[in-house]
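Hey everyone, long-time lurker, first post.

I ran two proteins through the pipeline my lab uses and got sequence/structure pairs for each. Pasting them in order. The first:
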Amino acid sequence: MMKQKVNFFWFRRDLRLDDNTALFHALQSDLPVIPVFIFDDAILERLPQNDARVSFIYDSLQKINEELAKVQASILIKKGKTAEVWKSLVEEFDIQNVFFNKDYEPYAIKRDVDISALLKENNVGSFAFKDHVIFEEKEISKSDGLPYTIYTPYKNKWLEQYRILGSVAENDTQPFFANFAKNHYLFPQLSDIGFERSSIKVIPHNLSQIANYKETRDFPALDSTSYLSPHLRFGTVSVRKLVNWANRKNQTFLSELIWREFFIQILYSFPHVANRNFKSAYDGIEWQNNEDDFKRWCSGTTGYPMVDAGMRQLNKTGYMHNRVRMVVASFLCKHLLIDWQWGEAYFAEKLLDFELASNVGNWQWAAGTGCDAAPYFRVFNPEIQLKKFDEKGIYIRKWIPEFSLGYNKPMIDHAFARERAIATYKAGILK
């Protein structure tokens, strides 16, 4: 019996049916489309069994599957090594083409090159599309073709190019849902994938909370952020819709979306930043890397209320307010002289919105080792930050219930830590 010719759409970090570029193009083809998601062993093996992000991915896929059921279709869920999964799919189906959206992280780039080669060997076409960003790779570059390494000129060029477009077209996939292959694949239990449900939840995003974003974004007690970041990370929302909305409604918020693309471009152009300093001159810094100090930072017991509240919020919820992230990152690198890579790895483990480009970019910004980073002699004073941005102590009391009873003595004196950090950086920066 001959197998039906089909095309595949490969879900990755674009977990939505609406305004999904590669899916839109897949559904324009003249063959039935089977959507597939692969739980990649290479990623899963590094995660705890109750990882909250896996629960969120699972729930997002389930919502997609419920939508597909309305047109007698379903999503095919697989688990394993990605190459092995595609080898089995090529044998099982008569696949003509595979459509997917690009990912710009080093692991994903190599994976996609390998899978495209595997498909080609089996006479299967592969088509990759820009979806995760407005401008990708070298679309925003200097006049000499080199990538920007300073945010402000990148932003100006980005805005110039965006305004030439007028807005970014959004793809309406709904009219083409009839082109999904009619099938019913068994949707697995979370336990079938080897995971259990996390008690930590991803909060629904809410753009109405950022009406006064410019005035309120630095005050963690106001809880006036959008909670969009995990949704952007896993693509449950369209960046085109967000950018078009922000351009109409909130330029400050648009700037934050551009920062995200700036860091994605940096990682794409300079992949070494994932595990090395962007500025090699900083390679000579002698970090203290005291494990006991690191444990106190991780657990939120440094004696500095804003640092500790932030770390406790992270450990309990998977979130941390952006202003507080800057304070805790500066404290680790400057006060404790612990390599930014230790903090980056801890955030990667805990943050619901972990995205390699932004995580590395922001950590290197705080450490002073990155492109367009805070100068090495800028050392946040956690106590001044507390007075400026949580003067009434509402945020810290929420996460440190024992604060009113008298709080721990700071583990290190700020003035001493500042002088030590500046001296260490001065001695370590290579001439």
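...and the second, right after it:
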Amino acid sequence: MKLTRKTIQIAARTFAKDEDGATAIEYGLFAALVGAVIVGTVATLGNQTNEGFSEMSGALTAAGITGEPSDG
């Protein structure tokens, strides 16, 4: 196959107009950002939830309430 100047110009223009690679990179960056936000949210809520359950457990223990059934 003989590459002429016109063929090279057409190939270069086609390559310059092709946006599929840029779109894929944008979607990849967006997916990474969403993932980072989810990880941060879960980590924050996980700590807050753990603290809440620990506080509730301490309050129930201080009130003399246990998780064992009574004989009454």
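Reply from user beta_strand_b:
Welcome! Quick read of the second one: Helices lie at 5-17, 20-62. The chain is about 80% helix and 0% strand.
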